[in-house]
Structures are given as C-alpha cells and as structure tokens.
Amino acid sequence: PGAHVVVTGGSSGIGKCIAIECYKQGAFITLVARNEDKLLQAKKEIEKHSINDKQVVLCISVDVSQDYNQVENVIKQAQEKLGPVDMLVNCAGMAVSGKFEDLEVSTFEVKPYNVYITVAYPPDTDTPGFAEENRTKPLETRLISETTSVCKPEQVAKQIVKDAIQGNFNSSLGSDGYMLSALTCGMAPVTSITEGLQQVVTMGLFRTIALFYLGSFDSIVRRCMMQREKSEIADKTA
C-alpha cells in the first residue's frame, strides 16, 4: 500500500489490468502511453477500484520508443508528484508477427542497486495488441497458437503483480507457462532452493512432454507448407 507503480503501455491490455490490480492494493499509479484519450479513459476505469481517498492516478502521454531524454523528464515529473518509483512495469509495445525473413531489422546489471527484475511470459491474452498481432500472424503460427486457450488480461495481470511482489524472477500462467519457464531457466536466478530443486527434478519430464509438443507443431508447419505448395502449383496451371 502506498507504493508508486509506473506502468508503460498502461492505457490498455495487460498494462491497464496490472495498474488496476496494483491500485486495488493501495498503490499510486503513473500511466505512460502515447494516446492521451485512451489514457484518460483508463484513468477513470482504474479510479473505480480505489481503496482509500489518498490514491492518485497520474497520466503521462509520451512515446517511450522515441526520445530517451523526454522519457527521463516525464519519469522525474512523476517522482516529484508521487514519490520514488517502487515498481516499473514495462508493457509498452506489441508483438510483431511475420516470417523471420520478412521482418525489418530494428534495435532494441541492476541487482547491486537493490533493483529486482520479474520477467513475465504472458500467454495469448485477449488484448487490443493480440488482436493486432493476429492480423499479420502466419497461418502456421495461428494454428499453433490455437492449440491453447486465450487468457483474460485481468487474470494475467494478477499473476504478474503477485510474482513481482514476491520477488520471483519468472512469472508464468498455467501449466504450459510453468513448463516453458522451467525448460528455459538456464542460468536464470531462483527465488528459493525449492524452486531450483523443482526445476531439476521436472526437467526430464517436461523435456519429454515438450518433444510431443514439437512433433505436433512440426506437423502443423509441414501441412501448411504442403498446402501452400499445392496452391502455388494450382495457380501456375490455372
């Protein structure tokens, strides 16, 4: 309660839901996004969940992908009004779907300073960003994506906030998410000895399950490739 939480991409989707979840727990919120109208709309929605009359939702319209100095200035303004930032949630941006060869090239140590990181692996989530992603998603990717259900942003946000508060390095949702985070843990830090032991013990089982997943995904890709080749032959003979 009383923590200052800054959420980039906080005007919609998972970002907005994380802001709501933190607000429910008494936090002060700074929303950062490009669209001012969406920011004000999100602010009204978040304020409905206040637990005391001292809470504040501050809106800042800025493109975090552009001028760093401008971003730095608005964060300073937020700190002057609501105090030091206790939690920074980066939800700005969206997935860019497409084949690797078709995508354009773009560029995109904190522990000694007592800053801790939680890396979230959200599943397919019913957000405006996911809807936009589906517009350019290749058939293979869409079919693979459809093998699992789409989650609600409120559900995803609640899990991310819970893991961040507990200091967990990884945040995942559901059995598939847990399995993926365990399989890709590598040199990632662990929150407890128990977590590390669980990863060691389950690694073999999860790898076996993953091989079945990969077999299914490969089958989908092959079927799509054969279908595409048949279509190309039909077009040539037409």
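The record above closes out task 2.4. Task 2.5 opens with a second protein, given below.
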Amino acid sequence: MSSLNDAKRRAAYKAVDENITSESKIIGIGSGSTVVYVIERILQRGNLVNKECIFVPTSFQSRLLIIEGGLNLGDIDQYSKIDVTIDGADEVDENLNAIKGGGACHLREKVVAEAAKKFVIVADYSKKSSTLGEKWKQGVPIEVIPFAYMLVIPSLKRLGCENPVLRMAKSKAGPVISDNGNLIIDAYFGLIKKPKELLEKIKLLTGVVEVGLFVNMTKMAYFGNEDGSVDIKKI
C-alpha cells in the first residue's frame, strides 16, 4: 500500500513531466506539502534546463523552496503571464473545482493560477471527492482584513455556515496571519453543490479579500493512488 507522501510524489512527478515542457519558461509554483515534490522533480531536470526558466511563488514557503533550490525567482509584478502553474489542493470535486487555503495562501495562489495559461492540480487520493465539502470538513478558507472579521462572521452565518471559525495559530498566541497581513476564517457549508454561486456570495461581503473556492479554473488534476498509479482528469 502506498503512503500519502508516496502518492503525492508520484502525482507531482507526473504533472511536472507532462506539463513543464521546453516551451514552459514562466512557471507558477503553488504551496503546501505536495508542492515540495513538484520542486523536487523540477530540480531533477537539471540546471541546464532550469536556467532558462523563471519560477513565480505563491507563498513564503514556495519562495524559499525556489531560492534554496537555486532556481530563478520571479514575481507576479514582473511576470503577469505564466505558462503553467502547478499547485496542490485540500479537496477537488468531479468537475475539478477545488477548495484551497488550508495553508492560508489561497489569495496569492489564486492570483498566480489565474495568470497562467494552464492551471494544474496535484494531490493524493484522499483529496478527491464527488462534491466539495464531502471530505474537507475544516471549511472554506476565507481571507479577511482584520478590521472586518467580526462583521464577516455573522454574514457567513446568514449564508448557511453554522459556525465560522477564526483560524488560530498553533505555535504562537493569537490568530493565523496570512502573507498579506490578513486573518483567515474557516466556514463549513456542508456539501457545496453550487460552488460558483457560493463563491460569488462570499466575495460580495465587505471585508472579504479572497475565498478558497477555485471554480472553473483547473485544466488538469493528477491524483496519486494507494496502488501506486496516478489518475489524470482533464476538463
């Protein structure tokens, strides 16, 4: 039986091999545990290939991975048109809509994903579901400005979330602070059968910066399985 990490690695390797080609010069790098294996595979291609590429991070984590790997670091300000972005996800439904933001990076992840000609998700088998909310019970991550979080919480309740939770840090006193200096609210809405509709409603709330629902964005998803295989789904 394959471990989750083995499944993540196989999905990441296959996604890199099939989507970062000789024509891919500007590459978006997502965040999270699976992206470690994306960088690992990119580094295995060798400096001769990688020296021609620019890598745009979505978080402090992926920025460090790029720098520590000796890759060419770029910024979305410099490279607003990206050839391909590869990122992980917390849950992916049968239409390749995704919940992202478990690492509180979804604002920058969405910017870099939308800037790409192709957005590819890599994940292990535990992240695949038929409907969002089926497996990811922590809720939809919502980035809000600190000044407004107490206003946003009752608004989320009116939209159908029974218990919106301000995400608290585990190694510091107080809340999680995003790379953008904002707070994160996790809001579980049960099964999300209309993710686009929910996304639009939350985005209209005053104080909301971004929502961890990635709807109609993903072109391909790679899922590493327990048996060592990798499932590929395309839209």
